[in-house]
């Protein structure tokens, strides 16, 4: 049985500013330099990926992802330095939360039904 995962979402004014899916999307954009390629990697539509990026960019006071329009040289997208800092901060939150709740997570885990 796989251990339960702690999933954290950070909400702001009715939007999920950051969560596990958005962090994964940012990581793929950083890796591929493209929202389209990141969307394909995650098996989601380009439109959905673009909407998630748009929500993140609107939630924060600085850009998380910047993109350039296509054309003869093709477009692209880049996770900003601030976006990279958000990825790191989110990962630290997950790690610290799991450590702080280790005893409680152990109790919960040991009482989950086994298949």
- Kindly estimate the percentage of residues that lie in beta strands according to DSSP: 5-15%
Distance between the termini: 8 Å
SS-derived structural category:
alpha+beta
Specify the CATH class.
Mainly Alpha
What is the H level of CATH, i.e. the homologous superfamily? Winged helix-like DNA-binding domain superfamily/Winged helix DNA-binding domain
Instruction: Give the mean pLDDT.
Output: 91
Count of strand segments:
4
Could you characterize what this model shows?
- With 115 residues, the chain is of the alpha+beta class.
- Helix content is 56%, strand content 13%.
- It has one domain: Arc Repressor Mutant, subunit A.
- It has helices at residues 20-32, 35-42, 46-59, 81-100, 102-110; strands spanning 10-12, 15-18, 65-68, 76-79.
- The strands form two sheets. It has a two-stranded antiparallel sheet with strand order 1-2. The chain has a two-stranded antiparallel sheet with strand order 3-4.
- The longest helix has 20 residues, at 81-100.
- The protein is elongated and about 55 Å long.
- It starts with 9 loop residues before the first strand and ends in a 5-residue tail after the last helix.
């Amino acid at each position: 049985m796989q251990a339960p995962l702690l999933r954290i979402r950070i909400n702001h004014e009715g939007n999920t500013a950051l969560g596990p899916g958005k962090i994964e999307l940012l990581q793929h954009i950083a890796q591929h330099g493209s929202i389209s390629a990141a969307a394909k990697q995650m098996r989601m539509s380009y439109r959905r990926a673009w909407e998630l990026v748009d929500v993140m960019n609107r939630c924060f006071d600085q850009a998380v992802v910047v993109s350039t329009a296509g054309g003869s040289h093709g477009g692209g997208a880049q996770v900003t330095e601030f976006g990279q800092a958000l990825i790191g901060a989110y990962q630290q939150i997950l790690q610290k939360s799991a450590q702080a709740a280790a005893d409680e997570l152990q109790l919960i885990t040991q009482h989950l039904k086994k298949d």
